[in-house]
Amino acid sequence: MTSSTCHRPGGRAARHLLLQILLLLSLLVPGLTQECPHGGGLWGTAKDTVRTITDPVGDSLRSKYDGLSDKGRFVAGACAGFGASRLAVRTTVKSVKTVGAAYIAFEALEYVGILKEARTEQNKQLLAQTKDYLLRTVDGIRHDMRTQLSPNKISKRVKRCMETDKSGTVGFGTGAFLGFAL
Fold first, then answer.
1. pLDDT, tens digit (0-9, with 9 covering 90-100), for 89-127
2. Do the Cβ atoms of 41 and 133 come closer than 8 Å?
3. pTM more than 0.85
4. Residues with Cβ within 8 Å of residue 37, at least 6 apart in sequence
């Protein structure tokens, strides 16, 4: 037997496909790239960055998707749904782990007294600026989640998508279900 180096065939192609799926998702969710009325923060910056990437590529992806047959749209929707659901699950799990680890670390620092030493007059202004920036970021996310993830708006969006692109929408739902189930 010969030993060979194990590598993932098509790794670059898989990353390229994932990027296209994410760009397609950002185009399909109307409001993902809206202006943030809450002074930006990190969320506003992230949305502006997404817009600079998706705007030039959007027309090309949309024309390619429109040229697909119903089976092609179903497969593209299934891939997008599967990828989006896996991304959502992984991101949620990692976020919970990160917040838990940060909480434990800050409690340990507080117990040891390091955080009390860091509360100087010089650092209070920096802490106030950081707090304001984080609050603007969280407020932007909260605002977008409240407006984009309302049950009424999601129902209208699904109905509209089912009327305009039934095979792609069913494919997306099927892929999302499989992504959450696996």
1. 999 999 999 999 999 998 998 888 887 777 777 777 777
2. yes
3. no
4. 143
Token pair belonging to 92: 């949620």
CB 33 within 8 A of CB 140: no
Question: Do residues 102 and 109 make contact, with C-beta atoms less than 8 angstroms apart?
Answer: no
> From CA 84, how far away is CA 82, in angstroms rounded?
6
DSSP 6-72: ---TTHHHHHHHHHHHHHHHHHHSTTTTPPPTT--HHHHHHHHHHHHHHHHHHHHHHHHHHTS-HHH
- 141 residue type, one letter: I
Q: How far is residue 160 from each of residues 6, 65, 145, 165, measured CA to CA in Å? A: 46, 17, 20, 8
Chain segment 130-165, per-residue pLDDT in tens: 888 888 888 888 888 888 788 888 888 888 888 888
Beta-carbon contacts of 122 under 8 Å, excluding residues fewer than 6 positions away, are none
Please give the Cα distance from 61 to 58 (Å, whole number): 5
Alpha carbon distances (Å) from 114 to 19, 98, 124, 131, 174: 42, 21, 15, 19, 51
**φ, ψ for residue 153, nearest 5 deg:** -70, -40
Q: Residue holding tokens 């409240």?
A: 146
Nearest 5°: CA angle at 30, between 24 and 33?
A: 85
